[in-house]
User: Fold this.
Amino acid sequence: MTTPLTNGHVNGHVNGQAQVGRQTAQPPADGGKLIVLTAPLTETIDHAGYFIQMGMASMPIWMEGVMNKKYPHWREVEYNADGSARYMPAGVRLVEASLLREFKPEDIACCYPDDLEKFVGPNTRVVAVSTHNPLGVTFAAGVYTSIFGSSKMPINSHYSRLMFEKIKTSPFRQNFKVIVGGSGGWQITQTNSFEELSVDCVVEGRSESEDTMELFRKAINGEELPREIEVGHPKEREALLVPDRRTTFGVVEMTTGCGRRCQFCVPDLNPQIDFPKDKIMTAVRANVREGNKQISLATEDMFIWGQVHTETPFYFPNREALLDLYSSVVNEPGVEQHVLSHSTIAPAVVDPVMIEKLSELLLPKSPIHLPYLSNHPQKKALSPLIGLETGSPRLGKKIMPSKGIPFSVEDWPSVVLEGLAVLNRNNWFPVMTLIVGAPDETDEDVMATLDLVYEMERRGLFAFLVPSIFTPLHDTRMQDKMGVSETRQLTPLQWQLLMKCWKLNLRPGLYSWWGPMAWRTGALALWAWKLRKINGPNFTWPLMMFASALPENLMAKMGKIYVGKPLKTKSRKELLATIRPAQQQFLREDCGDLPDGWKPHTPLEALKSEILSVGS
Assistant:
């Protein structure tokens, strides 16, 4: 049962303005819940698609009005009959599931931040928070808020601070401990923001861990907690839990870890595990049961599922297993929409037939429509998140040497182009991230990436290219490395890469006769008003290129920008021939372009039977 919102008052906001005031000491009638779980509003909202959350992670708070105009009802949320949150981020629901192994349901409440006073009282001993970006220093947040003049206050960081302020000013604050988890916890430890945000402990790791449970026991007993603690990650799939409640966007975990060992990646530090299908479907059905019509299987690489710890290397996808899983998900009664999470691009080169068959399954349930790109009858599209990161094989060797396996990183541009051709042909238009200003990045590396971006344009390929300034994430192999830290440090080439990507991204929206003129005028006006002062002289000509103030070839002749040179790349057949001979057996015959002398893989059990039959 849900409770509608009334009187235009939505989660502490009136007419779009956040209301922060002194909290009353009147406790909840039941004295409050023993454990209260929450997350920032901007990370909890369950409508308008992933793009609204991406926008709020990237746009500065002074541009909140743009989001309010585009999504006037974004703050509206749903409630259960008892006033608790109808949905919560998957991480919060996982903590809830972990706690329910030991505590009673009536001792735990999941609530929206502005409802904390309804559940926090004299009986409360723990307020646990999950947050992705409390201080605004993630990959995307840093670069885009900095471009517009603020380095640490994107919209979702603002709402995180509002949440922490409510916790800090609770009249019952002295009675409970504040425990923070989630992928943004490192921001609090690295900036020593414990006192400012009123945080007692930051946890790195998963809530299934016994260490996590012991932490909650200590908090409930009033014992001192460590400022930060790293808890163990389950090593076996049987130890992984899935929530039995509705999650934001219907997120259901599919895998942990990745296995490609990129130097800048946090999730890849986790063990590579795929969740059993029955657990995934349990979580899917729980979402449907509680009113969610959309499901998204969360993963660092969807293509490893069903091929983890088998006799086949994980980078040769288990086509049949994937088709079976996704078929079960999208055909589950009540599932009306399905959105892809993260993937890698090399599997599209390895098994294009798999991409074709997945498209047949998934496109009918996709909520994404790209009318100027898709050839689907209803113009539907699929947009997984894929890491491109760099077009420079030299830099790739240093920061992501296994990104393209089973192919060499030397062939990374060819892998990207061939894979993107397969994806586009099947109406997959991925969101591809790039890192700008990585440690040791040279002008030649940036030019190599521009070469790749221009080559995509020449070949008529499309991806939403999202460049971000390098952020040394905590616990990664690059946590102590330093690259570009603010936009004024960007070189003209790095600025051009940023602006060229966004110029290409906007192509689908500029097909109207007035669109290009309006965009050009707006970009130049914003530059004249504010951006030229904020971002320095290196920004000027890339912005002119972005606004199409002059033809790019003319600007190149003037020496103001670099126009990427045509790339000589390998075809799919040539790429397949570069796979290690011992691994070529895992290629599928129906995909074609097989290397000379190819022989199919013989499963180990079949091989044993064959040997035994010969021996007898």
Summary: The two ends are 67 Å apart (CA to CA). The longest strand covers residues 431-436. The chain has a mean pLDDT of 86.
